[in-house]
User: Which sequence fits this backbone?
């Protein structure tokens, strides 16, 4: 990806309707407010925390509807959907983060 490629990537997800996950700066800031830093949020979701999964999903959806709350988002999902939701969250995070520039790693 070019360094100037700053398009926000939208990952579709079926909840109460088709919505789009976006990890923009606002989403990352919300997670930082909740967990202290983004890595801690990732640690929680990796350990299987349902609350962290709900928080990540909420943070990725608020760009579409700022009136959403974590509880409203939690009401949109059933426990049997968690594995698919974690996959979608992972896809959205991967899409949001820049790829490593090979020339940067070669020069170090």
Assistant:
């Amino acid at each position: 990806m070019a360094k100037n490629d700053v398009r926000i990537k939208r990952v579709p997800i079926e909840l109460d309707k088709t919505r789009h996950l976006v990890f923009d700066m606002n989403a990352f800031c919300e997670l930082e407010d909740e967990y202290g830093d983004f890595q801690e949020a990732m640690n929680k979701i990796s350990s299987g925390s349902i609350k962290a999964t709900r928080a990540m999903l909420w943070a990725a959806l608020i760009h579409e509807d700022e009136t959403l709350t974590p509880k409203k988002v939690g009401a949109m999902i059933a426990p049997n959907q968690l594995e698919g939701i974690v996959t979608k969250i992972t896809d959205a995070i991967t899409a949001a983060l820049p790829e490593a520039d090979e020339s940067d790693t070669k020069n170090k």
About this structure: Strands lie at 11-14, 18-21. The first strand starts at residue 11 and ends at 14.
